[in-house]
Design brief:
The structure is a homotetramer of 260-residue chains. Chain A is mainly alpha-helical and 260 residues long. Chain A has one domain: Cytochrome p450-Terp, domain 2 (Orthogonal Bundle). Helices cover 59% and strands 4% of the residues of chain A. Chain A contains twelve helices and three strands, in the order βββαααααααααααα. A three-stranded antiparallel sheet of chain A has the order 1-2-3. Chain A is flat, with a radius of gyration of 22 Å. Chain A starts with 11 loop residues before the first strand and ends in a 6-residue tail after the last helix. Chains in contact: A-B, A-C, A-D, B-C, B-D, C-D. At the C-D interface, strand 1, strand 2, helix 1, helix 2 and helix 3 of C face strand 1, strand 2, helix 1, helix 2 and helix 3 of D. Chains A, B, C, D: This is citrate synthase (unknown stereospecificity). Chains A, B, C, D: Belongs to the citrate synthase family. Chains A, B, C, D: GO terms for molecular function: citrate synthase activity; lyase activity. Chains A, B, C, D: Its EC number is 2.3.3.16.
Chain lengths: 260, 260, 260, 260
């Protein structure tokens, strides 16, 4: 089982007097000069953004931060209830459910778009036809078309137009934004009910405009949500709900079996 | 086991057409208007920061994002090696080690400072005397004094002066910053070797200036590090090291026992 | 940051034709010959148990496996709801809350007993006096005395006598079992209300009889609970509750704020 | 977002004097009477096993417990290095990598077998023909055939015959065991190199004989590995390697960039 290949990182290095992150001096060029959104951009793209890029990137990230009471924030609160001394474990527990159901919808939207227009390439042929092909494919496979429609935010998911407005201003409204809107139009026509672009459709399109491979979108969602979960940790410390939920659910779930 | 107490969150709520986060309309007042650092501030303090607050907060957060190859980033890379489809699990694994040893040093520095000057209160008595009392306490208990000295960044940890410079400019250089510097001066004199304020001392002082309770500092460290770990996930996908480390370590660790 | 110390494991090694675990040949000496309880004992004690040891160890482990609907099993179910494809993440999420509140009570009971009678040593002086000293210590520090009393299992926690019965039969009823019973008697007398030994008191005593250091008890609790959480994963797949809990709690928790 | 469906568990309930797990009285019928392997069987199958079932189940479980130094046990050790007070987090970190690469191979073997012979059904047609169809399918899709061949355990994986021997004795050697052996024979003939059944092939076949759906196999692997990771936690406390690995890797990985 022996072999020997290179072990190398290009992210960061340190000497006693200097710390370098993606080629920037942490103390001279980052602290006090780079804000958190730009720092996140730096971690992802290995260079700082310009003003336009930072504005679009921040808009995309802030949408992902906070979603209220969700299975994810409930897992964080449940974990805090048993291990209040291990805040890192509570936040990690909340992140663990960002899988195929929640975070996955963002991956899926970006994947669909990038399957039709490869990153770095341009669309081949008419956009409406590409959209029709995508919709046909999903319908043939009887899979839901990602990025359109929303069970709760009806008739439209207000986050999508808000993101698209920033994309317009920052010139991020390119092929992928066009395509997700075409997919929405085609699906609405074919299925006979309104299926506007939802937040994951808008995010998937904008992430694609940024050149982010679909399978890295989840990382950004996870990082943003870690920020959101800090808020739930703080609130659970101030005004807890986990124990009450546990008592109620335990009582209800076992009532059918317990002798009185 | 029955009881019934209120279950309530004040973080966020949604209707089909509106999402409210800490009283702000996500689509109207946050997307495109609030950057990621301010959004993080909002999650923690339940209000947006002004320019001065945002600048100091960003400086504190960016320091926590990236620390290169650490046990934490190695845990993320090891996890990705077995579950590349579950990026959320890889990031969570890296966060789980932010416990008493690493993140804990920040908690400890803030706790020491807040034990001497309660949050919201002012120092009672002379700062030098308070610092002497703290140093005596730790030496009596034979515990290391948090926030001063560094095994690698010698003679000084360059992050501390960089943070203090921003604190000076943004008027965050208050009682706690004074106190950690006094602790450093007293310890240096008493122990006869240079023990300058390190990054966790500077961070603990500034977090205290922000009014953050010591046991919530870890939450911020965890959120910032989640951003950093996204960079390690991306690099591990591009240029993996986990499998090579595993092969080498397995070989070396079992060599003494394996028959040839 | 250079240095070079030995990296070595004594747990397991493999050649193409043989796998050795704690000195036993997996294929020749373990598979089909060693049951899961003995295998667990082997991992912990680095040798196989005899019949008597296996029986007591199994009794201790099975108590830890399943505790019904708890914050821990709810965290597992919440995580599965978002990431049904990542069962490992759901189980991990449930384990993360086994901290100071739940698993910690077992650690605390064992720690108290081992502080009075060091592992490998015998009691110094009269057991009743040792118990009185322990009770006094905890009352002076205003800390709850671990291992006695139970908020729900009243008047007695039925698991404690069941474990003690096995300890009696298997000759595990030694100093530590005597001591926890004395602690219960002293506390009951001093505090004027029944404070019988509870499950964590019995477990802490028996773990101490096994020579397990108090800070390793949590590991056993975590392993046993991982087994229990598999049952919750299977039930959540068959008959889910996580989404319903989420909908109800989200609705209730935001009702005060949402416009109708 | 309102609705109201039943929340119910059938795993366990408790009254002050009694705890019931899958219909058994914990104190009367489990403690001291049921060993850990049978308790695990109970959690999975909701009934106790007979002797024959227990023996096969134990054999399957013990194989999964310990795999030496792996990315999984390294993630546990790395996490412990930063959070030695949170053993639950260290074990959880090790479990998180049991995804598509490691635990997934077991799922895949079981899935392949269950796709050919549905659980509860019998094989339709000749076994050799079924195996040929499976091998063709995987080769057409250019996917590796799960459950056969091993990069390290050559010429055969000794765990497979060990498991099959127990299956023979306990009468678990049914359709699925036959099928995985046929798959091995067909693949060996078609691909012109020895591709004997490996451990995941044997486990996947036996799990299928137990009637376990392929997507629940991972749960068993996770539970068994949690036991194994306790051993790594204990060894890391006794004789640590994580910090040394971190120092070496950090040094090597950044050497190309650091100024001397």
């Amino acid at each position: 089982m022996k072999r020997k290949s290179e072990i190398r990182t290009d992210i960061a290095w340190a000497t006693p007097s200097k710390i370098s992150i993606h080629g920037l001096d942490l103390c001279e060029e980052i602290i006090g000069k780079v804000d958190l959104g730009r720092m996140t951009f730096l971690q992802v793209f290995r260079r700082l953004p310009d003003q336009r890029e930072a504005r679009m990137f921040d808009a995309m990230m802030v949408v992902l931060v906070e979603h209220g009471i969700t299975p994810s924030s409930l897992a964080t609160r449940m974990t805090l209830c048993g291990a209040p001394e291990a805040v890192q474990a509570a936040i990690a527990a909340g992140l663990l459910g960002l899988g195929s159901v929640f975070a996955g919808s963002l991956d899926n939207a970006a994947r669909m778009l990038q399957s039709a227009i490869p990153l770095g390439g341009g669309p081949e042929g008419d956009m409406r036809e590409i959209a029709e092909r995508l919709v046909d494919d999903y319908r043939t496979r009887k899979e839901p078309i990602p990025g359109i429609g929303h069970p709760f935010h009806k008739p439209i998911d207000p986050r999508a137009p808000a993101l698209f407005a920033v994309a317009e201003e920052t010139e991020y409204s390119g092929h992928y934004v066009t395509l997700i809107n075409e997919v929405s139009a085609v699906a609405t026509a074919q299925l006979g009910r309104p299926l506007p672009v939802n937040v994951t459709g808008a995010m998937g399109a904008i992430a694609s405009e940024f050149g982010l491979a679909w399978n890295t979108c989840r990382g950004l969602a996870v990082a943003a949500r870690a920020i959101g979960l800090v808020g739930h940790v703080l609130e659970e410390f101030r005004n807890p709900m986990a124990e009450e939920i546990y008592f109620r659910i335990e009582d209800e779930a076992t009532r059918h079996a317990r002798p009185e």
